[in-house]
Amino acid sequence: MDNAVNHPSHYTRGKIEVLDFIEDQGLDYHKGNVVKYVCRAGFKPGNTELKDLEKALTYLKRKILLLGGEA
Asked: What is the pTM of this model?
């Protein structure tokens, strides 16, 4: 059943929710968002796969800048 607030269908495509994986791995905000957008790419109603992958890239670039002391 699709619950638009707690468990939208694009959150639960596999055996576990992406959020559970992110928390289990202890990923920070930026890396967690990269994983989230890659895993859900193209499955959220109204979002294209390209749009989601561009969002992931935005967070990845920001993390790289932070690690390099440029942000």
From this structure: 0.80
